[in-house]
Fold this protein.
Amino acid sequence: MTSSNVILSIEDLYVEFHVYEGIARVLDGISLYVRERERVGLVGETGCGKTVAMKTVMGILRSPPAHFPKGKVVLAGKDLLRMGVRELNALKGRVVSMVFQDPLNALNPVFTVGTQIIDVIRFGKHGRVSNDYLRKRAVEMLQAVRLPNPSRIMKLYPFELSGGMRQRVLIAMALVNRPKLLLADEPGTALDVTIQAQILSLLKSLVEETGVAILLVTHDLGVVREMTTRVYIMYAGQIVESGPTPKILDDPLHPYTRGLLASVPRLTGEVLAEGIPGTVPDYTEVPPGCRFHPRCDFRVDQCSQAKPPVAQINGERQVACYLHSSGGLE
Amino acid sequence: MNDSILRVQNLVKHFPICSGLLGRVTGYVKAVDDVSFDVLNGEIFGLIGESGSGKSTVAKTIMRIYRPTRGTVYFKGRNVSNWSKETARWFRRQVQMVFQDTKASLNPRRSIFSILEEPLIVHRMAKTRREREEIVCQLLEQVEMSPLYMYKYPSMLSGGQRQRIAIARALAVKPSFLFLDEPTSALDVSVQAKLIHLFMNLKTQLNLSCVFITHNLSLVRTICPRTAVMYLGKVYESGPTPTLFQQPGHPYTRTLLAAAPTVSSEEEKVKPTSLSKEGEIPSPANPPSGCTFHPRCSIAEPICARELPPLLEIHPGHFVRCHKAQELVNTANLGETSSCESSARGGDI
């Protein structure tokens, strides 16, 4: 993907950790892209490498222990992995920023909300700016995330806010330096469904208003359906399927996506499937070929020999599975 | 109802708020405020609501982890409100609880064997270590885990495995009733699906009844035949889950349903529109007057702020506490509109 409106593209990225047990290849050649103003989802279960992918893009993955033997992470036209610390810091906040899962842990308990937002604005600006400007901008941002009475909230400490308000403060902090890409790591998981729905609709309208693109990392397929137009499904460090969200969720092609969707209880009360047999593999001893094959009901001999090629379906969907590479299943 | 195994009547739990140097009581947090329900024999009864609505406190008060302020609890026809030593021993052996966070509910410094043998010692169910080892082996097999896990520690297990241990511990004393407090909310969906299947099998095998506390509405719809919706310590709606979901009679139930994340287009069709304004659950220390949902309700009228609505039976077994319940049910976008005669009844959900 080299078209001009792509803000983030990850190309065949490998990330390894050298640990006592051996080499843990946590990302095994993933590729994805996010266009400007796009809402993209990255879905996978615990331990599938979502957070590692996210931290790589944010440039906060420490190396060592992480190694990047292959691949590129191109953010706004520059390769992140070949960048110095200074260059990287210049991108943080202004090109890419992040909203974390647990809003209480992400805020500093001993400073007021105002102080923390102003810190972020200062970080994003070169040279001196007036205190008036900083304050005005912070209040403006709190207003933008629909917090009532922003000048009062500026003086409060994080513990004085509810979970939903904290998450709004974090979103305000993430967007205050007008980034082009927002990484959202399970932004509603720690909240109630009603509050989660409010936060998600806020994020959606902020995309409209500010033109920021969102890469939403989550394990909740319902949230992905609500929030995104395109989705990548990840399993054990590989992207198994990608395409337009409604199509993937209504008609999954990869056996893993199918198993995952069948495990989600439905509001219509359908019978729940028994989950996917087995567990996510240990990264130091991953199965060869398609990493899902030991748990797959449809596996064939090829699956354990080589990584399945990515098949294009109707030009808009990609699936990495031998069932689809030779022209369709069943 | 003769076949009810657990009957809760007008249960109240108020926590005092102490302040000042002398620790004088300056107010009460009304965590559970006049809650009544029945759980039938062999049934999974769902209890849903946002955090802070008092779901867990209901369970903990019935379990006598908290001392109830008022109210009566009948278990198997026996009044367990008079908490004597003898009642306690009997009740606690019959009724067990599985908690949400296994990191907190399983002692990290004790081996799985030591965790599972404790209830056996407390209830004097096995004298020798050999007997206990045998029972622990059986328990592990019951939750589909290898007996080899006996000498591992909770930190060595995955979230799903730890929750299996928690279930095994609850089953150790052969209870007939379980309180499940969000047992799967920290787990991935594929792990959750496996655990739910395991649990449903155990429930049939051992003829368990239970109260399933959760905020996952889809899960309630899938496994609970009857459900109650709680908000700020009160039950605002209860009834058979399918009708409750198809014809929600309380704006709060509608709001919850509308906010539930769903994955398929079919589910989108059954979701009602939300009837709430933006806002969060108020503090139970200072709940709003009348119907406590009225400040968030988009169809609230002056009467809602003045009076707590009576409990109406809008369908057989389907109770709603809302001044506008009849109207809401008639305009429900799904199913037939029923002209079921509404009758005011109190305290008999």
Q: What stands out?
A: Confidence is low (pLDDT under 50) at residues 333-349 of chain B. The longest strand of chain B covers residues 24-40.
